[in-house]
Each structure stands twice: as structure tokens, then as C-alpha cells.
Amino acid sequence: MNIYFKKIAVPIFNKAQKSNLGRKSINIAFLTRKFIWRFNNTSTAGIYLVKNMHKIFNTNPKLNYGSQIKELLDKVNINIADDDFIFFLDEFKNLSYNNTKIENISIDYSKALNNSLHDFKEFYSQKKANKNIDFIQDQLDMLEGTELFILKIIDAIKSSNRQDKDKYISFFENIINKKATHFEEALQRILFFNQVLWQTGHLLNGLGRLDKILNDLYYEDINNNFLTKEEAFNLIKNFIKSLHSYYWYKSNALMGDTGQVIILGGKETDGTYFSNDLTYLFIEAIKELQLPDPKALLRVSKDTSRDLIELSLKTMNTGCGSPLLSNDDIVINKMIEFGYDTEDAYNYVVSACWEPSAVGKGIEQNNLNFFTFLKPLNNIFDNESEEFINSINDFDKLFETYKTYLKNEANNLIGILDGLEFNTDPILSMFIENCNANQLDISNGGAKYNHYGITTVSLANTVNSLYNIKQFVFEDKRFSLAEFNKMRKNNFIDCDDLLEQLKNNPKHFGCDDEEIISLTNEIIDSLENCFKDYRNKFGGQIKFGLSAPSYISAGEEISASFDGRKNREPFSTHISADLNKDYTELMRFASKIDYDGCKFNGNVVDLMVSPNFIKNNFEKFADYIQLSIKLGFYQMQMNVIDSKTLIEAKAHPELHTNLIVRVWGFSSYFNDLPLSYKDLLIERAIKNERNLAF
Amino acid sequence: MTVRVTNIQHFSLHDGPGIRTTVFLKGCNLNCPWCCNPENISFEIEKYVENGLKKEFGYDISLNELEKEILKDEIYYDNGKGGVTFSGGEPLLQIENIIPLLKHLKNKGINICFETSLSINSNLVSMAIDYIDELFIDIKILENEEALNVLNLNLDLYLKNLEIINHSNIKKENITFRIPLNNEYTLNENNINQIINLLKKYPYKVQIFKTHNLAENKYRLINKKQVEIKELSDNEINEVYDKIKEITGNVEVISI
Is the complex ipTM higher than 0.85? Predict the structure, then answer.
């Protein structure tokens, strides 16, 4: 978002949220953007919106949330597909919100499969001492609304053209009063609750560990000859297509940013590696369908089988961006060290992109805000006097000053987090552990875990800036710190040679070099120190990771930096090093970063690889992945693309309508991306090809 | 003890089995017109300027430091599946200096490979053979006078060294001939026939490739002019492939 636009838009948005009219206006604004995505044409989108304006409905904010959900679901336009799974959204019907929405999490769908609505109803209706009447009332109202919604769907199925009416009627009846008993039914039930989450305004809804959750029902059906593997594969493909539907509606910050991540595989508490037929079938389906969304994350360990690694690599090599690999041998231990129960850590999923969390057990708001490592450094040099800058006469003093400024920024962020109030959420409270037992809504701290997660950007730019200052000013004494700053403030105009040297310093973030690694670890340890004693109002801690979506937009707010980045240019992406000359060095670097303490909230190595390179060296590249797991990367994702294709696609989008690229933690059609993202991908691909010319 | 290198390339996938680190040793006694590593020809350190920065091709590295650098990727060598490749230049010219390093690497079970033109003193070859697991041997020009004039290659010495290799303990399946092909120097009927005869005598694996002009920038940096060589067409290289295929099944076209 343009920085100037943002400065105006954010206060207006905050004020508008406080009134009915304002909320409606916000809905219209968001719907306009979504319709532009949908129709890929501004005037068609505008005409569609005007024609349907009368359909826009917001629930009565004076009602309790359970009743608002009931009111909303009653208004939703039912739309039954003629075949396959039933999944529909009514983009015009909205739940009213007063506070920050809880989103970006995966519920534990096994709770939905193993319990009926009546099971929950029975639980809430039990006589208890110290009953929290408000909480119970919300839950019961929400359940009643959901049940009525199902009954309406059943009526609609009855009058539909479907050939399999009886089967699907029973699937929906069972949601009310039975647990799921078959594979297909389970998929439909997951889709139903997923639909309800989207319809009630939740964004970035993860799917959880589907191979694990569906394991028993799948094998029961297979063993009882109720289902063949081939039928299961077709069902999975249809399931994925249903999830992909309303892609434009589900997208958040950018087209494709839906947060629909399917978690597959994983290490068990006994150290063995879990995978089953479904692990393979889901990846095969994603490979075959070539849709940017939903995406897969494969939890891997040193015991992940070679054929699963090869299948994943083949899938990544299609360019679809999936699966992202998350290394259980590292992630799980870090979660346990942070404070998650062992069983929960072993059962982790991730939020919309990569942030590990305990599935169905916490508020787990993992991307509440972001921290810009470069900001405190640039604050020193943008705001302090020349006299002050000249008084910084060695690197240690500079680093100490940076740490002080970093602490101030961290405290500002803590202030923002402390001001957060979450919206009451009966649906999530039903599924999230301890809310029911505590009779406390998730928004009030009812869940088992109440940690706040943030992401960070510009670590690479900060490391490179600090190292350049150390080398050029304090070691080589080429100019004074104030002189260097003057060139930076002047956006390095007429300093072309210097700029090249700053950008291409052989010692840079991503190098397997002791000095760079220790500088990197010192910076992130400094941020950890700012957060480690913090507890939010629910007793939760702050966790952060080194990957963030905002590397372009956050860069727009920061002046030129000593790493050779010019005013407002994008930051580096995740843990990437497009300057590196080989792929092993970045992995060695990533495995030496200290992810201890609270620093485990998503740490993705981001590789750019050309498709032919993998194709021509497939076996060795599969070795590379397996051995890198052993070496100990935290997470990794690949953009398999060459610059030539990207440049062509930018010039002739009509010839590349299906070209998919990995953006931050999601995949998107290249054509759907803003120009700034297209240009950054092209620039990275060119750099990568230049440095890794084999 | 130091050794003179120009580059240490990790994650090398084309210089032997598995994932490897290729060490480019500086200095060569040949002068192939198509050379794609011109910065490795002179043993002397060569200064140049790029983007306003003074730089040098070549530096001396202690054996300890070199060993450390090689072992950085030990995990990727996967218990001997991958390893280290010494290339150049002519790496065997510095063999005396690196023997202690080779002993260490051997003890650690690191797979060792050399890429050589074999136009060197036979003592150097004999010194190396005990440490070599994998070997790439160039076949360039097999006509006495032309080899000497164009490449500075002593063909008698080359053939003698080949014989030493053939009688050594290096496993035959681990030896590969590499043949650079261009119309200007190597791809003529007489030379191809000589190559075929040599391959009949030494039936090792064969890799053939087109020479290219991609090193133009490096030539410019060291003030040398690259000889213009036209890249072969796919048809031309496929014809050679077919001829070699008739005598050995183990031939492939690679791109370098």
C-alpha cells in the first residue's frame, strides 16, 4: 500500500469501524477490492457491486455474538452445487465486529469430526456451579443458528438437481447429531465448518493436519471396501477445488493470500515419522491441479522417506510453490523449550504462512504486527545530530546505541499489542481447548495458550548495514560515520561505485561467516531480551520469527540504508541471500541462527531456483533437501522460476495466465500481483541466475 | 604450507558424484584457446578492477584453512557419496603441496576427484594416484604437432601418464574422459578418429561438450582477448555422440 495513502486510510478506517454506517462503508470498500480481483476489471466490478448493493447485510451489533451468528446464517443465500462437495459463501452477508478479529489460525477439525452439534449443546446445557451465563448463552445461540442453517441446507439439497441427495442429506444431518463415520463425509464436514468460519468473517483459515485427522476414517473405508485409493484421490481433488473456490473472496492482503494451508506428515512423540496414503494423495493432487491455493506444508524430519521428498521436489518444481518444508527436528524442540506441552508441540500446525502453533489450543495470533529491525538503526541516523553521530567512534558504541533504539521500538510495539481487544468468538471458542472447560471466550483468554506472535522484517538489511559501517568506517576508515550518513541521506546519488560495493559486499547476511553469524544472532538476541519478560493480559508471551510478509510495504516507510538499499526500496525476503554463490552456504547459515527462546515464529529459507536446474540435477537436489534437513534448517520454500519467463509474463500477461509464483508464505498467479512484487521477483531471479551460474 | 587457488565452489553438481566442493587451483601449463577459466592459467596472482573495487584473481590459502572450507559441506558429502574435486588450471601441478590435505581428507572418508589434462611430469601423476577416487581426464587434440602448437600439450607424456593411470588402483568405472568440441580445433575427422582409437584402448566413461564464449568477461578483466569460437549446433555434437556411442555405451553430452 502506498505510504501516503496508508497514512490517510488507517485513521479513517479505525474511526469508521465504530459506527454502523462506517462498518457498512468498510464492507463496501473491501467488497470493491474483492470484486476487482474477481472480475479483473474495475468497471465490471463496480457495476456488479451497484447492482447488488441492496443485498449487503450486517448483523445487529446490539445482539450478543451468538445471536448475531444466528441472524447472519439465517440471511445467507444457500447455493447447492449440482455435484461434488457443497461449499458456498454469500459475499454480501457480514457479521458486525467491534474489535480485532481472531483469525489466522487452524481449528482442530478432528473435534468437528468426532463431535456433533448436539454433543456441544449437551455440554453447554449441563448444570454447573459458577456458570458463566453470557458465555453459555453465546455458545447456545451460535449452535442454534448453525443447526438452523444446516436444516436450510438440507431443504435446499432436497430440492436440488443432485443425484446423491440422500447421501449428502445424511452427511449434513449427521453434523447435527452424529460424529462423522466415512472419509467423504469427513471431507464435507470439514468444508462445512470451514465455510462457516469464512462466512462469519474469519480470515486466513488453516486446514490443519488433514492426513492425520482423516487417517482412521480413510483406512476404515479402504479396509471395508467402502472406498478405493483412486476414489479417495478424486475426492481429495474435489475437496481442494472446493477450497479454491471463492479464491477472490478469501484473499487478504494480496490475491492468493488466503491462509489455506494443509499440514501434512510429521514427527511422532516416539521419534518415528508419520505419513500415510493421504500425505501422498494430497501432494499429488496439488501437483496435478496446479492451483495456487490451497497450499501444503510438509512437516519433515531426517526420517522422512526419500520418495516423499522426491514427490515434494517434483511438486515444487512445477512452480506451484508447495509444499513448504518445516523441519520437525528443529521446530518441535524450540516449541517445547518455549513452553508448549510436548504433545502439543508434536502436533503443531502453522498459521497462514509458517508460524508454528498448537492446533486448536490457543488464541495463537501469530501475525499481529511486525517489527522492522532497520527502523531503530535508521532512526539514529535520520534523527540524531551530526555531533552525536560523530561521537560514535567505534563499532561497539554504535551497536550499543542501536540496541537502545531497538528497545524503544520494541516497547512501542508492546504498547500496541497491549491495546488490543479481541472480538467475542463463539465459533472458535467451541473448538479451542479450555474455552469450554473455563467457560471463557477465546477473546477473554479462555484458551490453553494465549501467546502473541509477531513477524520481523529487514534483518538482512540491518546486518549488512551494520557490517558495512564496521568495515568501511571503523576498519578501512574510508570516510567518517557522518560523511557516510550524508551519502545515505542523499540516497547515494552520484555514489554509484560505492553503492555497488555496499550491495555486493562479499561478507553479507547469508554467508557462512562467523562474524556475520554472530552479528545476526546478537541482533535477534537483543530483540528477544526486550520481549522475554513480557506477559500479556492473559499471561501469554510474545514470540517472533524472521520471516514476514511485509518486506515491500514496510520498506516503503524506511529511508535509504547502509546496505545500499535506496529510499523506500523493498527489504530482503525472509532468510534469503541472492548474492550467495551456492545453495549449501545459505543452509549452513540458516542452521547456525539461534531460534531459541521466543524466536521460533516462522523462519523460512527462501530459495530461488531455475526449473531446468532442478530438472537436470533432480537426484542431487533431492539429496540436497534431505541433507539440509539433517543439517538443521528451520523451514524452507522454493520459487522455481527463471527470470526470462517472468519478464515475458510481465510483458504479455495474456500468454501466461497460469504462471504461479511463491510470494511470502503463499502462492499466487503472477498476473494477479502488484507491479512492485513482479519487479522484485524478476530482480531476485536475475541475481540468483547470475550468482549461481553453473 | 599454502596452495594457490582462485575459487572454492560449494554445491558443485557437475564435477563428480554427489554434492561436491570444487577447488580451482591456479596455474596451468596448457593454453587452450577455448579455455573457460582463463584466470586459472597463470600461476601468478592477477590484479583487476571491477565496479571500482580493486580485486585479485588468486590467493594463497593454508592447507588448514582449505581443509576447513572443504569440510564446511561435509554433511552434504553424505558419507563419501559426494566430496571434493580439484580442478584448475592443472591441479596436479600443485600436488606436492596438497598431499598432507589429501591424507586428512582420505582419513575422513571424503571422496576425492581430480580434473586433469595429464600433460605433466609423470612423477606428479604417480604421487597423486593413491589419493584419487574419481578422475576426469581431458581428451583435446591427439595429433602431436598440433597439440604442442595449439595447446602446448606434450602428447607422448599424456599417453604415458594415461598408461600409468590405467595400471593404477583407480577403479576404471570411476574414470571419465571429457572431450571439448569445437569446429576450430577438436572436431575434425582426423582428431575424432584418433579419439575413437584412444577410447577403444581405454574404454572409460565419456562426456562430450560444446565449448562456449561465456568467459568473455573474465578475459576482459585480465586484459586478454578470447579467441572467437563458434558454438556447435546440436546436430554437430549429436553426430559425435553417435560415433562414440558405437564403441562405448557410456557416453553423455554435458553442458559446462
Answer: yes
